[in-house]
Amino acid sequence: MAKRLILVAGNIGSGKTSLTEKIGARLGWLTAYESVADNPYLPNFYKDMKVWAFHLQVYFLGHRAQQHLDMWNDPRNAIIDRSIYEDAHIFVRALYSMGNLNELDYRSYRKVYDLVVNSLPAPSLLIYLKAPVPVLMKRIRSRARNIETGISQDYLSLLDSFYDEWLATFDLCPVLTLRTDDLDFVHLPKHLDVVVDRINDKLAGKEEVVF
Fold it and tell me: pLDDT class for 211, splitting at 50, 70, 90?
């Protein structure tokens, strides 16, 4: 069987980390996650976004590119929590639209991003997790992470609209969209079974049935 590299994308609170953990454990795949706890720019970024936005995103770009290559070069199948593509098309775009990233820095970032991404091997599958914004807000409040206290419903809605626009033209690999508001793959094994079946079907090129 050919090497598989799966990327999990989705808004904040959509269930990316949980799905990555569950799929990795179920299928014995290598897993990789976002660099948050050891990110040297995050504390300063949350104190002054305009000053540190460019630095933070360049750090994320380098981290995710290395992660993508490491997972690809490992002979085992792999699944990654968050894709490198979301940085530019979702989060950097949001920082720019909100005025936290100026025009010069935005254009400089996009130029470097394009060069980096064009050199990466394409993934086998992108899993997009989608849930209504009120559900996302409820999950974020429930997990009560300090760095997420400033996240608003308007911000999540902005990100959600950017995801829709990005995925409308994404063509690097097949996309499997999963609605997670009624899908509990963490606590219900039968729901995880459904997800695994749909991943295997998508990788096999079978026609997708709307969940």
Answer: very low
Does the residue 31 lie in any domain? yes
* Amino acid present at 138: K
Q: Which residues are part of the catalytic machinery?
A: 81
Helix axes 153-167, 133-143, angle to 10 degrees: 120
91 & 48 share domain: yes
157: Cα within 13 Å, side-chain hemisphere: 4
Among 92, 121, 150, the domain boundary falls at 121
Q: Which domain covers residue 175, as residue numbers?
A: 125-206
Q: Say if residues 160 and 11 touch (Cβ distance below 8 Å).
A: yes
Give me the residues paired with residue 126 across strands.
7, 175
Number of domains comprising the chain: 2
pTM: 0.92
